[in-house]
Amino acid sequence: MIRLAGCRSLVLTRCYVAHLEGEMPTLDPVVHRRRLGHRLRDLRKGSGKSQEDVMRELGWSRSRINRIENGIQGITTESLGRLLEFYGVTDEVEIESLMDAARSTRKQSSWGRFQRLVSPEFYAFLAHEESASSVRSYQPLTVPGVLQSPEYAAVVTGWGGRRDRAEVREMVELRARRQDILSREGLDGHIPFSFLLHEAAISLVVGDRDVMRGQLRHLIDVARAPNIRLRVVPFEFGIFSHWRQPHVLLEVGDPRVDDAADVILYLENPGAEVLISQSGRSDRGTTGAVRPDPLVWLSDYTDLENELGGPDETIALLEAAIGRLSRPRPDGSDVPRAS
Known about the structure:
Layout: H1 12-20, H2 29-46, H3 51-58, H4 62-69, H5 77-87, H6 92-105, H7 120-131, E1 134-139, H8 150-158, H9 165-178, E2 185-186, E3 189-190, E4 193-198, H10 199-203, H11 209-223, E5 228-233, E6 247-252, E7 262-267, E8 274-277, H12 294-307, H13 311-326
Parallel strand pairs: 1-4, 4-5
Antiparallel strand pairs: 1-6, 2-3, 6-7, 7-8
Helix pairs in contact: 1-6, 2-6, 5-6, 8-9, 11-13
InterPro entries: Cro/C1-type_HTH (IPR001387), DUF5753 (IPR043917), Lambda_DNA-bd_dom_sf (IPR010982)
Protein name: Helix-turn-helix transcriptional regulator
Domain HTH cro/C1-type: 40-93
């Protein structure tokens, strides 16, 4: 029976059985595609076959093989059966587990109703975020979507008239649903989250003063949650690595199944989002010659996080921002500024 590098001492079958028996959180079909693709790549290499061998034997294009192994495209059970036969996989339990995984990849994602509202990269990001074992997020100018109040989210998603009212309501609902992950439990308790916000993000008034004060109060509540590390990067901190680039780092994979968690870097560029896997197997949206290394970004993020103060300093900065918003305007009024 073939053993895989991604399953420590376990055979592939037992890895998938653990998922099927409900020992781990339910995975989105997008994540199933990615994991199944990785496993099929490992099986191919373990059997000594090249992509060219698969192309000759099954008549598939290289593009199709890459899309399956990269988790971009699902695979039918019929095609999977032919592939496993070619790889010499004969264990019936193992084959059935893989077939179940293939069927799961072809189901509708729980995020499907929002797919038309977001980019393909962000759609894939949603599925990975939901199953991540840790989440780290940096935002230089706005509050992260997963921490936004409904009022703040409505202003951000509707800015500039890009969406009609119905779409804005759906985007606010999407952000609210994403917040469910903040209380999701993993193998060892609640999933850990880290959020670094530049002081500009808590100083820039989004909407009006009431909206912003409500958002800042919500952040204070978030900062007190035991599984959430929220820190504000003060203006006087100066320039640092990637200080202008909003990004999220996800660790995905289960330590009982994977030798090491994969790191996925999501870069939030308006109109040009990028989703990059540390393993190099799930790149989406990359066009430049220089490919950002998620591990380097993770190291830079950790260094920055360690240089910042504790929760008391963060709460003090948030309370100071609320205080500034509570002062009368120069003309003596406190009339909200129009968005």
